[in-house]
Amino acid sequence: MSGEIVNLTEIEKSFGGVQVLSKVSLSVKEGEICCLAGENGCGKSTLIKIISGVYSHDGGQIALNGRTYPRLNPIDSIREGIQVIYQDFSLFPNLTVAENLALSDQVESGRAIVSWERMRRIAGESLAMIGIEMDPDKTVEELPVSGKQLVAIARAVYCNARLIIMDEPTTTLTQKEIDSLFTLIRNLKEKGISTLFVSHKIREMLDITEKITIMRNGRVVAGGDTGEFDEIKITQAMTGRDIGGERFHWSGVDEEPLLRTEKLSRRGAFSDIDLTVRSGEIVGITGLLGSGRTELALALFGRSPADGGKIFRSGMEVVIRSIQDAMENGIAYVPEDRLTEGLFLEQSIERNLFANTYKKFERFAGLLDFKKIRAAADKAMDDYGIVSPDIALPVRSLSGGNQQRVVLARWMSTGAEVLILNGPTVGVDVGSKFEIHKKLREIAERGVGILIFSDDIQELIMNCNRILVIHKGRFTDELQSDCLKEHDLIDRLNAYR
Amino acid sequence: MNFGFGKIAKGEGNIRQLSFITLCTFILMCWLLPDTFLTVRNFRSMSFQFPELGILSLAMMLAMLTGGIDLSLVGIANLASILGAFVFVKIMPPDSPEGVVLVYIAGVVALAVFVGMSCGLLNGFLISRLNVPPILATLGTMQLYTGIAIVLTKGAAVIGFPARYSVIGNGSVAGFGVPLIIFILLLTAFTVLLRKTNFGINLYLIGSNAKAALFSGIKVGKVLMISYMIGGLMAGLAGLIMSSRTNGAKADYGTSYILQSILVAVLGGVKPTGGSGYAIGILIAVLALQFLSSGFSMLRFSNFAKEFVWGVFLLAIMIVNYFTNERNKS
Amino acid sequence: MDKILRKNEFWLFCILLLMAFIVGGSNDAFWSRTNLFSLFKSSVVMGIFALGVLLVIVSGGIDISFPAFAVFSFYITVKYLLYIKFTGPVVIPFAMSMAIGTLLGLMNAFLISTFKLIPLIVTLGTGSAVTGFLRAFVGTGTLSNLPQPLIDFSRWNIYTETLSDGSVIGFSGSFLILIALSLAVAFVLRRTTLGRGVYAMGGDLTAAVRAGLPVPKLYYFTYGLVGALAGTAGIVHCSLIRLANPRDLEGAEMEVIAAVVLGGASLTGGKGTVSGTILGVFLIVLIKGSLILVGIPTDWQKVAIGVVLITATALTAYRSSKGGR
After folding, report:
1. How far apart are CA C296 and CA C299, in angstroms?
2. What is the pLDDT of residue A282?
3. CB B166 within 8 A of CB B247
4. Which of A164, A371, B227, C101 is least enclosed by beta carbons within 10 angstroms?
């Protein structure tokens, strides 16, 4: 009989009197590919930590491979073959691939002396187990993200994993890498290794998984075979509401564009880019990783300036050699990686909101007017629907969606007329994603020109009136999104692989 | 003027704790030494001792706020005081009339400010333009500045200041020592700078996340450069007070101040990883050390016993902070 | 990365050779055996310290308490041995000093791992406390009549020759200790599970915890070993200068850290090698010892070290920022 690796029944968990999980049941059978879905803060991560023994459960039953554990600890969980691959992979960047793969074994086997030969052998074996070839003497920091992920998977498999739990595994991968990850997951299934996919990307769930469990507010709200679900049903279950799907239409006039580039180039990144963004437009730019997409965004924002061509703002030629130049010319940029490039986690919401606009509040002798700042903060919180009891709280206390809105509000308060967003909803849950898209449309309506760099095809089609495809540093297609089909765009992108 | 006392009352836990411990130290010393500690004379003498360290600690705090550190501060202080001393000894004609002496003193103060800022500029350049980690950059410049001071003096003390000069380190205005007045002025200026200006808030933001600061359009390089220059300037001023108070300038004077200023900053609640700290914390921490140190002197402990107690004190505070933070978490 | 590291050491070696030839070219006295022998001898203590600092930097920490620990260890050892009028084998004072150093190092580890404190602050505190304790409660006097075994050790040469003017010079046996300890630390770092654990924890502490590495044990191992090395360096130092002076070695921490950083260790942890470190030590010792030979007064020592350190770190930082773009 194909046994159940994990069987949770009616798990309860609370922290400091707050119930975070109530009556959560979940089971994963041998060789099954399951998905645990839900918005940020729905209890997914708590559940994973309970399965891996990091947290203990307050009520309910945990059975691993048929054995009931009244109190599960991490070592038991690992012994039962549960391996978690965290988003950061938990690898050692300074060590070689071989060592990363073999270190756990080295420690567990209780050997005091390291045999490099043995390490390489273990590395070779574990890479072979997932059918990957890789230079075991490379250090992990030299690998691309997808390579790191493969090392993490190989390590899990070598540790006799029976169930691999992957926490948001596709966030930083390109489409091609996602495809090969899925192939790998299917191969693992052949070997009887199950995968629990933790995600909020709906399309991927439908693609790869056989069974879906959806959580909201600490409860399981839907579950069953993937075949029974479609995008709408999942979204409804995750957010608890209907999310409308009306496409964005631009109805402005074809006047002098807010932003125009002429043969913009940067050596080794992109060349001859002719781009226009008009008032009220939302223009999408997409391309594979390494297509010059991010480089173009950074050049328009002056982070790594272009070295050829011209940029016009409302018809006037401008020089953008630094972020300050871009800001002076009313160009704002919401970065790709909110946590490392956007937010000051330990600092207050107020400081995060006004990080680059404090100068506006200077009175005499450079002193700031905190009354005005307070009022402006209240207004921004209101405008952008940021929910928090106190603007003096650290921004860390906010949810991902609220945090992204803080960054957006920060940039809009600079009075920018051109807003560049790089992956605006990466790592944002479905509900917040919807709110952010709504906000972007509002901003566009006020006459701001918006440029979205993204690889979320659906996001682009729904929210942009034009989509440009960049490949090898050049624009290859310009598409009106009115009647564009998702798979058309995907096909075009696939053609460049 | 809001020095941040409000924050303390509101529960800036670690500073509140430090204030409490400082108060306890004070009461303990008063109780142990009612005749000597709790006297005007003692308070006067303490008020001349701690400002040097206080000023250096403020400079250290500035570097630590941005997630850096400045090991070269004492080197800068000594270099500034030695160059000033040379002006008096080698350039100023002996038997100059009173007015001329005053002009020279003003010149020496200006020179110290200039030297301090130039040294800070080099630190800032290495750190913000060449991306050298602050601890390494200032480790190097510490050697360099101290080295230049040694080359200039051959390691010997430079003495022979005009009597007027000693006012900076030993004089009083309305009963308050000049060093204390300078320290209080700088402390006030710092509080305003850090809490009420764009520049000050930028320092916290950079310390919290330098990359995000860059992407927010904050001129990170410029802010860092200026902050190390201000640090150097403060060190130059501390050098003036040191040389004026001791009536001498020497390349290796006060080398223990560098570790002490880190100690004061950390005691005062400045996070070594950057992004948090209050100027008022520096005042409380430096007072705590001064009470301990004066009290122990009166109890006939040697200087070395003080060093021992300081180390233990630092560790004890850190451990107490650990336990309160743990308790707050759960 | 390994290749680039090897390259780093290669370049360091080239610079070392270049400097030797410059100094030697301007003054023949550099190549005299008297000078070379003394250079090797003066690199011993700094070298042993540097091995410890390398270890702690690789682990992602820093230690500025080791000179204080070294002084504490040798002073107590010598004082006690004088008190009991010790005449036994030289191994005893070494073992004793090492043991005291180890205990002190374990204290650092305890504070760092139990209370999750920052190594810089902890070692600042323990360094100050230990120095203060020693001078306040143990003594401040210089002990110049070391126990005989230590004096014998300082005279131990593995090679001696008589110069034409009749004076005798020798290659100090203490250098063997540096070689042995270097090999031992290299072995530990490269070939033991603990050593690799130190690299792993310096690379990513969270990952180390998740991978099941015994992180507290690694702290005790690292800081304990740093203490042991400090104790050893201390006793070697006091034996070589034939004095036990509790005011010695003040400020040595900065120079040693400078040497280790010159040797290519990264202060962010996880990177650094024994060979690089030893080359870094040689470089600093060469600068300190050779200025006078090229006609620069020794007053310039600190300036020279400062300039070299600034240049080296600036070049490294510049190169890595180029590489990152």
Report:
1. 8
2. 93
3. yes
4. A371
Interchain CB distance below 8 Å, B215 and A341: yes
- Does pTM top 0.90 for this prediction? no
Q: Which residues on chain C are in Cβ contact (under 8 Å) with A88? A: 206-207
β-sheet bridge partners, residue A96: A139
Distance from CA of C156 to the nearest CA of A (A): 34
Predicted ipTM of the assembly? 0.84
Q: Is A95 on the interface with C (CB under 8 A)?
A: yes
Q: Which residues of A touch B214 (CB under 8 A)?
A: 303, 323
**The residue to which tokens 């640090």 are assigned:** B231
Domain that holds residue B57: 5-329
Cβ–Cβ under 8 Å, residues A7 and A27? yes
CA dist., res. B315 & res. B309, Å (int): 10
CATH number of the domain enclosing C319: 1.10.3470
Which range (A55-59, C131-135, C160-164, C176-180) has the least confidence? C160-164
Q: Give the separation between CA C265 and CA C54, rounded to whole angstroms.
A: 7
Among A236, A243, A196, A232, CA closest to A216: A236
Give dist(CA B292, CA B259) in Å, integer. Answer: 17
φ/ψ (deg, to 5) at A397: -75, -5
| CATH class name, domain A4-239 | alpha beta
CB-based contacts of A52, cutoff 8 Å, min separation 6: A74, A77, A78, A82, A84, A165
In chain C, which residue's Cα lies nearest the Cα of A140? Answer: C1
Number of H helices, E strands in chain C: 13, 2
Interface contact flag, A324 B219, Cβ < 8 Å? yes
Domain extent at residue C161: 2-324
How many residues are listed for chain B in this entry? 330
Task: Please report, for the domain that includes residue B182, its CATH number.
Answer: 1.10.3470.10
For residue C309, give the nearest of B139, B259, B272 by CB distance.
B139
What is the residue extent of each domain of chain A?
4-239, 259-495
Number of domains observed in the structure of chain B: 1
Coil, strand or helix: which one is C106? helix
- Per CATH, the architecture of A259-495 is what? 3-Layer(aba) Sandwich (3.40)
Q: How far apart are CA C200 and CA B58, in angstroms?
A: 36
The answer to whether the CB of B237 falls within 8 A of the CB of B112 is yes
Domains in chain C, number: 1
Closest partner residue to C299 among B155, B308, B318, by Cβ?
B155
Mean pLDDT of B216-242: 95
Give buried/exposed letters for C29-62 (b at 16+ CB in 10 A, else e).
Answer: ebeeeebbbbbbbbbbbbbbbbbbbbbbbbbbbb
DSSP-assigned states of every residue in C222-234: HHHHHHHHHHHHH
Token digits of residue B228 = 């190390």
Closest chain B residue to the Cα of A412, Cα to Cα: B216
pLDDT band at C49 (very low <50, low <70, confident <90, very high): very high
Instruction: Flag whether pLDDT at B34 surpasses 70.
Output: yes
C309/B140 CB distance under 8 A = yes
Which token pair is B294? Answer: 């004066």
Which secondary structure element, helix H or strand E, spans residue A277, and what is its range? strand A270-277
B263 neighbors B69 (Cβ within 8 angstroms) = no
Between C2, C207, C212, which is nearest A92 by CB? Answer: C207
Domains A4-239 and A259-495 share a fold: yes
B257 touches chain C (CB under 8 A): no
Largest CA distance in chain B: 70
Crossing angle between the packed helical segments A370-384 and A400-412, to the nearest 10 degrees? 120
